[in-house]
Amino acid sequence: MRYTILCYHNEEITSAWTDEEDAEVIENLKAVNRKWAKNFEPIVRLMPTSAATTLRKSENIVTDGPFAETKEQLLGFYVVNVENLDIAIQIAREMAEANPGGAYELRPIALYYPNGEAIEDAPTP
Q1: pLDDT tens by residue, 43-96
Q2: Contact criterion met (CB below 8 Å) for 98 and 29
C-alpha cells in the first residue's frame, strides 16, 4: 500500500534556519530515511513558495507565488510503500522527532502510467 507523507511547516521559520541548522535537520531526517529505506520511494523537497508559479484554473491566470495564503506551506513529500497506515504513521512520527514543528499529512495514493493506465489503485478507507 502506498501513502504520501506531505510535509508542512511555517516557511518563515524554515527559511530563517542557518545553513548549519538546515543541515542538522536534514541529517536527522536521513537517519529516519536510512532506517525505513526499503519502504521509501520518491522523496521530494520543494523550493520556497517564493519560487512558485500558480495556474488558477477557473480564471486561466498564471501568477507568481503559492495558491493559498497559509501559515504552513507544503515543503515536500515522501512516498512510502508499507503494509498499512499504522506503519506510515510510525514513519511520520519518527520524522516529526527528527524535524519538530509543522505537520505531516498522510494520504493513500494510486500510481498511474503516463498513458493513464493504473499501476495500482489507492486503498479504500
Answers
A1: 888 888 888 888 777 888 888 876 656 677 888 899 999 999 999 999 999 999
A2: yes
